[in-house]
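Course exercise 7: structure representation. Students receive a sequence record and must write out the corresponding structure in token form. The form below is the worked example handed out in class, using GrpB family protein (182 residues). Read each field label carefully; the graders check that inputs and outputs are placed in the correct fields and that the protein name is recorded exactly as given.

STUDENT ID: A-19
EXERCISE PROTEIN: GrpB family protein
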Amino acid sequence: MTWAEILYRKKMKVELHPFNKDWKNLFDIEKDLLSSTIQNSDIQIEHIGSTAIEGLSAKPIIDILIGVPDFSKANDFIAPIKTCNYTYISVYEDTMPYRRFFTKSTENKRTHQIHMVELNYPFWIRHLAFRNYLREHQEEKEAYNLIKSELSEKDWDDINDYAEAKTEFIRAIEYKAGIREW
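STUDENT ANSWER:
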């Protein structure tokens, strides 16, 4: 990146929306679509992220976790998932070779994203433990909502910086949920 690009780089804010009860319905529709397209009864499809936690504000993107029993076969599911209007983003395999990542957009706005990992792999376990813990613990859910709200007011160079800023809190919740390794 040149100095000119650094100087004139546009900062971004994270746009959070109040909880929307339709997020569950949007997930259910997508789960049905993916299940019928993939046609493999051994996979599991879960709704994760803030849109999966009632009462939590969120970026309005439905996060979907697909668990496959044998990750060596994960690439077999790429083509079927792409037929559901998902874009496969292979570049992230460099840093997360245990995950396949997909996005879906409408009118140039991301609406869904899929994280495909091996069932019972740490990524799978951590994300479900975090979701389930916040679903069951109102005080921690409110604290997370406050952190997200405060962070959304800041200017960010990259959405990953926003995500990184939440990591300490997320790890603390995972620890409370029984996760001891990352």
